[in-house]
Amino acid sequence: MSRPCIPHPQLVRFKYPLPHLARALKSQRKIRIVAIGSSSTAGEGDIVPYPSRLQMALRKTFSDRMIDVLNRGIGGQEAPSELSRFESDVRAEAPTLVIWQVGTNAVFRKEEFDLGGVSASIATGLGWLRDLAADVVLMDLQYAPAIVGPDRIKFSEEMVLRIADVADKANVDVFRRFALMKRWTVDDGVPLQDMIDPTDPENLHQSEWSTMCVTQALAQAIAEAVPSPMMA
């Protein structure tokens, strides 16, 4: 799709700086980021997922550093099951930054999940991550037909609010993917269906264009959260 990307930096700008990443960029050549989550992280179909794209974007921004973004996504998982992987998939990698994508499956498979229980699992995970010498960013839901239809929208909006609340209590950042994608379709005139992989019968997973543009917005948010001397 040739449509230009509008990353809306004012909408997705982080609330908190990323001090661990800033220090690493100043003193280390090799930097490791862990991206953990479900299919939005792991990837679905033939579309390259955001962690690989983010790695390329950050290496371009910080060209004198070797930044690796490790993809630790497993399709279909949600926060409660992802906690069991924290020791091996997050802590053992000694990352400088952790990006934890949560909430989508809690809404998509709402019959299987209690939103309060998912929120509690996110809070527990953030508590565990607090012991790491790493910054943490939560990524919330995608704005997709499968989770913004009449039977799901109120659950999506509630999950977004719960993620924001848990993050505020833990003083960690949220990458507001849901709000960004909603802005594209509501204000920028991007058809909702164009943001979804046309080969996905579930109408859940992002298209090539929206994955690219979400990654661009995330990379910019990360770069802006690093003190300006580190961006030189």
Write up this protein.
The chain is an alpha/beta fold. It has a single domain, classed as Rossmann fold (3-Layer(aba) Sandwich), CATH 3.40.50. It has twelve helices and five strands. It has helices spanning 9-12, 19-27, 39-42, 50-61, 79-82, 86-90, 104-108, 115-129, 145-148, 153-170, 177-186, 208-224; strands at 30-37, 66-73, 97-101, 135-139, 173-175. Helix 4 packs across helix 12 (208-224) and helix 8 packs parallel to helix 10 (153-170). The radius of gyration is 17 Å and the shape is globular. The model has no long low-confidence stretch (mean pLDDT 95).
Q: What is the topology?
A:
Elements: H1 9-12, H2 19-27, E1 30-37, H3 39-42, H4 50-61, E2 66-73, H5 79-82, H6 86-90, E3 97-101, H7 104-108, H8 115-129, E4 135-139, H9 145-148, H10 153-170, E5 173-175, H11 177-186, H12 208-224
Parallel strand pairs: 1-2, 1-3, 3-4, 4-5
Number of helices: 12
Which radius of gyration do the C-alpha atoms yield? 17 Å
Structural class: alpha/beta
List low-confidence stretches. Answer: none
- Give the DSSP E fraction (strand runs of 2 or more residues): 5-15%
Here the CATH topology equals Rossmann fold
CATH uppermost class: Alpha Beta
Total number of β-strand segments?
Answer: 5
Mean pLDDT: 95
Strand order of the largest sheet: 2-1-3-4-5
Assigned CATH architecture: 3-Layer(aba) Sandwich
**What shape does the CA trace take?**
globular
**Would you list the SSEs in sequence order as H and E?**
HHEHHEHHEHHEHHEHH
* CATH superfamily annotation: SGNH hydrolase
